[in-house]
Amino acid sequence: MLADQQDRSPLGHIERQVVLPFRKSLEIAFKSIRVRFVRSMITTLSLVLAVAFLCYTNVTIDVVNGLLATGNADVRQQVTRSGYDVQATGDQVENTPKQRWIVFLSLLVCVVGIVNAQLMSVTERFREIGTMKCLGALDRFILRLFLLEAGMQGMVGAGLGALLGALFAITSGVIQYGIPAITSVVWVDMLGSMGLATGVGCLLSLAGVLYPAMMAARMQPVEAMRVEQ
Amino acid sequence: MSVSSSIVRVSKVTKTFQLGKIEVQALKGVDLEIESGKYISIMGPSGSGKSTLFNMIGGLDKPTTGKVFIDEVDIAQLDAYELAWLRCRKIGYIFQTFNIIQVMTALENVTLPMIFAGIPNETAIEKGMELMNLVGLGDRFSHKPFELSGGQQQRVAIARALANDPAIILADEPTGNLDLTTGEEIISLLKHLSAERGVTIISATHDFKMLNVSDQVIWIRDGRIDKIEDREELSISIGTIDTR
User: Fold this and answer.
1) The pLDDT of residue A221 is above 90
2) Which of A44, A106, B145, B180 could form a cystine bridge with B100, CB 3.0-4.6 A?
3) pLDDT of B128-158, one tens digit each?
4) CB-closest option in A4, A127, A136 to B99
5) How many CB atoms lie under 10 A from the CB of residue A34?
6) Which of A135, A141, A148, A228 to mutate to test the interface with B (most CBs of B within 10 A)?
7) A–B CB contacts, 8 A cutoff, strictly below
8) What's the confidence (pLDDT) of residue B172?
9) pLDDT greater than 60 at residue B224
10) Where do the structural domains in chain B lie, given as residue ranges?
11) Chain B residues within 8 angstroms (CB to CB) of chain A
């Protein structure tokens, strides 16, 4: 026990002696995405689609609510005719449970896709991870690199998806109800919907990478090096 | 036996691998002491336990029984941080497959261990360039690994292994993936570094070119140390190798 302590004393503040500054990790993560651009794009694409769908349904509701808020009876009738359940007294519509269910499913499928893609990417990078560990990287450096990468992919992908979804929702609104669709929409509501969609997208991206990244971080370097490539 | 000069001490180490239902004993009790500043080759046929012993010494794997001391510290006692610190500062690794990180330039590969060690960026780059010059690649620092030949990649790996001035360099078949002349260049570079910087170099190999530069050769057979030969004894036995 005493010998143990003696052994440890010269290595006192190890935690502070092995470091990876945040800026450097950001740089490494960014480069890793750039080098594997096509793969990153494919991973991100499913996220773009799912977020676009989420944003589309929410913004469509915003558009319809904007139209209803004008109080125009013609428009109200048009909205009712296109299948929305407008209550006699209220002037608000919302997603039907069925719509919500479909959106939820699409998000679920998206997460599964991300987990799958990230697992592949971890397997592809076993050797790189092993090398980093041999050079003295801690588990959490690896975890941080993967989370940062996923975070960046998530932000770009979800942002793009939200933009696409909103664009489609407004276009289809204009086609269905004419110009008032665009003039009467409450921009704050719409931006809120887009923000929500972006946030959900980022979270999904991070959730999808969590398990693969943990797997990568816990790997023993010798196992990682044993992989033939 | 003088404790102060031995940098690696292996004591009664055995290692058992579980392959399905069969247990395979790769090391069957190895005792070894490696002196500081020497150039050591571990020789043996494949499957002799050479790589296993090598991984033990490098702190990449833990023994089933027995102990491995690096600088008189039992590595089985170390936690994750301390092991990382050991890998970062004390030991430099060179691999058969070079293992240059593909997404980084040569210089970034060399500076990475220094970044881990908390050295500020400018200092790390300065020292990285110095090391790149030392291994003769001063003008190729901004190249990506795939733009470099095998020998050049191995030179980058050597520069990277030297980054934090380690006490030990572990080279696992450093010439295994290189042609004859490039292999010789790498060997003489390693020898030069060992002589100049006083780094202990331990290499697992079955390349007989390595024998000429080794201070000591450790022959492994069937998980045991077959014999340990010093340089003087070696020149005699080389004759028998040539005739084989």
Assistant:
1) no
2) B145
3) 999 999 999 989 889 998 899 999 999 999 9
4) A127
5) 10
6) A135
7) 95
8) 86
9) yes
10) 35-59+77-243
11) 55, 60-61, 73-74, 77-78, 80-82, 84-85, 87-89, 93, 95, 97, 99-104, 112-113, 115-118, 121, 160
Please indicate whether residue A195 or residue B79 has the higher confidence score (pLDDT).
A195
- Are A135 and B73 inside 8 Å of each other by CB? no
Q: What's the first-to-final CA gap in chain B, in angstroms?
A: 36
pLDDT in tens, B171-204: 988 888 888 888 898 999 999 888 888 899 999 8
> Residue A161 pLDDT > 90, yes or no?
yes
Q: Tell me how crowded residue B28 is: count the other CB atoms within 10 A of its CB.
A: 14
**Residue-level pLDDT at A87:** 67
pLDDT at residue B235, as a whole number: 61
Per the CB < 8 A criterion, the answer to whether A18 and B85 are in contact is yes
DSSP A146-186: HHHHHHHHHHHHHHHHHHHHHHHHHHHHHHHH-THHHHSS-
Helices (H), chain A: 2-8, 14-17, 22-35, 37-69, 73-81, 97-124, 126-134, 139-177, 180-183, 187-218, 221-226
Cβ neighbourhood burial of A139 (10 Å; 0-12, 13-18, 19+): middle
* A144 shares contact with chain B (CB less than 8 Å): no
DSSP letter for B62, please: -
Q: Residue A8: closest CA among chain B residues belongs to which residue?
A: B78
Query: What ipTM score was computed for the predicted complex, to two decimals?
Result: 0.84
Amino acid identity at B191: K
Is there a contact between A19 and B101 if contact means CB atoms under 8 Å apart? Answer: no
Q: Kindly report the CATH number that applies to the domain delimited by B35-59+77-243.
A: 3.40.50.300
For the ranges A129-133, B48-52, B132-136, the lowest mean pLDDT is seen at: B48-52
The whole-number average pLDDT for the span A22-28 is 88
- Could you tell me the residue ranges of all domains in chain A? 35-224
Mark yes or no for CB contact A132/B101 under 8 Å.
yes
A143 vs B contacts (CB less than 8 Å): none
In this structure, are residues B58 and B75 in contact, taking their beta carbons and an 8 Å threshold? no
